Amino acid sequence: MAVTVRQAEADDYDEVLAFTRDTWADRDVGDYVPDVFHEWVETDGPEQRTFVATVEGDVAGLCQGVFLSDYEVWAQGMRVNPDSRGEGVGTELTTAVFDWAREQGATVCRNLVFSWNDAGLGQSRAVGFEPVTQFRFAHPEPDADADAPAEASGELTVTEDPAAAWSFWQRSAAMRSLGGLALDSTEAWAVSELSRDRLLALADDERVFAVQGDDRTRAAAVRVREYESSDGETRYAEYGFAAWDDIEAANVVFRAIERDAAALDADETRVVVPETARHVSDAAYARAGIGESPEFVFEKDLTGI
Description:
305 residues, alpha+beta, Aminopeptidase, two-stranded antiparallel sheet, 10 helices
């Protein structure tokens, strides 16, 4: 059966809802697509495009591409109706996103797949995405009184110096492991390249942290956004990365994040840390509330299409 791809319309909602309301019914993970579909359609424009695939007139799949910078596009919301799997729906949708992104000037397209999502991992590779990095979310508990021994003793101090934070990020093992990517400030679940200008903007709009001691910077982090869940019951504070040289510095930077989140009245936090044995175990040692599984990031070079 022929697959047709077109721009999504508001009237597609009911059909999209039918195959996204229980996307991962076997896991304790909800699908955000039903909550954002109308907003996606309403805000489509030169820097964002939502696509649906149809088979014999029925909506069989969905995917959106959105620019995160002048050259980076994020592919998200890839969903295929189980009744249409194996018919090339995912391939046609992804190709449409690639073609649109390249026409708009993008040179790279990335996506994120949960590490437990076998179907999503296989689909990403099948349509040309290549693995680029992996990370894990840490979830330090908001706490206005959080303090680390090295900080309390004055051995380490926390500053908001963006130059120090940028310099540390540039030479950190975290930056190398993450391929220069950090949690994006404009799009939930997305990662993008962290430039110096972007970090300086986040220092003005949000907050950066630089942990200093022994005449050098030993850890850094950056807050990228705060927001409430769609039901208004949970307030989140999210941090683009946390990086550190040693466990003392890790303790200090996570305690600083906990205080910052508490000041925002956040209920939960998400902090990107590299998926390496050292970073994950250090974060666990620092009582940062490590997530159960990593997230995998893939990318497609659009310059050769």
